[in-house]
Backbone:
């Protein structure tokens, strides 16, 4: 009898589609295994460079927790930052730093306080972006310009936005500011060098940024600069 001849084993290479599917399945398996390990989870959340804001307040606003998958901070960091800024308006920016032990540090950049305000029955601070806050007032009294605002909140907000646009060097020369609603738009800035500057609170930062040049033109005189319409100087009597 003739012995049955063994059928040859045929080997073929996978098609391109099969290779892609295999790779995707492999990556899904690796990802699943990785996400199931403690290695993929946050072991601690910390805050660095927080000045006025309490660290715990920032952590609470971020809603980040220990054992949370840290990849969420990579893909969703923009949303986390927006959430912190919404809950804690003094926060300007957040940088996320993850060490080898899966400890996440939130490095905070805050808006500086550029003025304090007495308005109505309360006090507020003005941030560098022009926003008004009820917090941190006592810390900054005497170290930044002080505003006494006798007018509606809308006009104060408009002034704050303009004041925030000033160059830092000019803004630091302002000692105090007063406004009375009866004066309509006119606001008085009392400078540290003894001069006064009258401006329209709706639009003054571009003119006032040339203040040092104005002063150099009057030499040692002291008086009042009127920037409400044009630029005029009247020496004190």
Residues:
């Amino acid at each position: 009898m003739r012995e049955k001849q063994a059928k040859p084993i045929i080997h073929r290479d996978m098609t391109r589609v099969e290779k892609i599917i295999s790779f995707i399945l492999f990556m899904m398996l690796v990802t699943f295994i990785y996400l199931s390990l403690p290695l993929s989870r946050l072991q601690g959340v910390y805050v660095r460079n927080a000045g006025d804001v309490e660290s715990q307040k920032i952590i609470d606003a971020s809603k980040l927790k220990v054992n949370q998958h840290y990849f969420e901070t990579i893909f969703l960091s923009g949303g986390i930052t927006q959430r912190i800024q919404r809950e804690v308006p003094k926060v300007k920016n957040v940088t996320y730093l993850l060490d080898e032990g899966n400890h996440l540090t939130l490095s905070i950049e805050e808006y500086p306080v550029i003025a304090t305000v007495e308005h109505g029955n309360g006090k507020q601070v003005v941030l560098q972006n022009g926003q008004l806050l009820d917090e941190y007032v006592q810390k900054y009294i005497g170290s930044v310009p002080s505003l006494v605002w006798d007018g509606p909140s809308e006009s104060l907000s408009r002034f704050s936005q303009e004041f925030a646009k000033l160059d830092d060097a000019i803004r630091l020369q302002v000692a105090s500011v007063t406004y009375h609603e009866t004066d309509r738009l006119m606001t008085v800035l009392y400078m540290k060098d003894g001069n006064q500057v009258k401006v329209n609170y709706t639009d003054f930062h571009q003119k006032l940024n040339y203040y040092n040049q104005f002063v150099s033109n009057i030499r040692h005189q002291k008086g009042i600069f009127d920037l409400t319409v044009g630029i005029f100087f009247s020496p004190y009597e």
The longest helix spans residues 16-35.
